[in-house]
Structure formats: structure tokens, C-alpha cells
Amino acid sequence: MPEEETLNQSEQPREEQGSVLSRRNFLERALKYLNLMGVVALFSGFLAYLIPPRKSIVKVGGWQKVATRDKLKKGVLSTTYFGLPIFLLRRQNDIAAFSAICPHLGCIIKWDGEKREFPCPCHDSSFTIEGKVTGGPARPYNLLEFRVKVEGEDISVEMPEEKLKGYPAWFRNTMISGG
What is the Rg, in whole angstroms, of the alpha carbon atoms belonging to the chain? Predict the structure, then answer.
């Protein structure tokens, strides 16, 4: 039995070995730690991408002067509202303002003067002179129409936040934060 009592140090239980780690155990622990840190770094980066910090979302709104009457002589004017692309459109009795962002996936729409409509170049949606969707995957969303105020020669617009509720979340966030 004396042979059984004498165990070499590597066969002894860990509690009896003291605080000395073998090179193999140290490397295993180090690799596990590094793997864990890599997973945490990837996951936190992914979360930061999906959930922007609230401080970065600055709410835009209110009335902003976007043009003068003489710039709208051709009937349609592309301009911006707090950095968001919009169209000003002179109709028979009034001036209308629409977002130039397609509510389907966010492409920038253009004005087609020959067809008198707003086609989306990305997915074939189109909108009438009143901002109503006529075809394509943007259904059921019309162009967001802004309030318009004319004071002398100045044309100002305001985004109607109450109308945003019916649009997709990405569209609402884009419009509220100014892009």
C-alpha cells in the first residue's frame, strides 16, 4: 500500500496542490476569458447599433422657413426641412409640402413633370400630386404632407406629428430626428 499513498503532484487533487496552476490550466482559463470578452464586445456593439442612445435623437419640429414665393414659380421645388428632403408644390389654389422620403423603405422620390407624379426610383411606387400612393409596395402609406404657411413672400412648413402614428417606426424616427 505504500505505493498507493505516494501520488505524484500532478495526480493530487487541486485543493492539495495549492495556488500553483499548470501551464495548460492557465492557457485554458486565459482562452476562455478571451472568448468571453470577444462575445461581450460583439454583443454590446450589436446592441449599440440596434438601440441608439436617447441623447443622439434630437427632436425636430415647429415652423421653418423653407422658401420664398419667387423660388416656387416653376410649380415644384425640392428643399429641406431641418435636413429632411421635402417638395413644395404649387397647386391651383394652394401650396402643398410633402416629404420626399418614400414611406416604403426610405428612398428619395423625384418629381416627374410629364406624368405629374412622384415616382420612387427604388421599388416602383408612385404618388399623385396630392401625395396619395397609386402603386407599388409603399401601399398603404401616402407621402407625409406638411402644414404650409405663407407670410408675404416667405413659405414656412411644419411637420404634423399626429399623422406620424400611422407610419412604420423607422419612418417616424427618421422624421422626428431629422434624418
Answer: 31
Selection from 115, 113, 88, 87 nearest residue 102 by Cα: 87
pLDDT tens, position by position, 128-172: 999 999 988 988 889 999 999 999 999 999 988 888 887 888 788
Residues near 160 by beta carbon (within 8 Å), at least 6 away in sequence? 144, 145, 146, 147
d(CA 123, CA 104): 9
| Helix or strand holding residue 105 (H, E) | none
Q: How many Å separate Cα 13 from the centre of its chain?
A: 57
Specify the residue for cell string 402609406: 141
Give the model confidence (pLDDT) of 50-67 as tens digits. 776 655 555 677 899 999
How many whole angstroms separate alpha carbon 26 and alpha carbon 169? 49
Cβ pair 125, 102 in contact under 8 A: yes
Give CA–CA dist 7/10, Å, rounded: 8
Tell me which DSSP letter residue 108 carries: B
| pLDDT tens profile 3-49 | 555 555 555 555 555 567 888 999 999 999 999 999 998 888 777 77
Among candidates 144, 138, 140, which has minimal Cα distance to 126?
Answer: 138
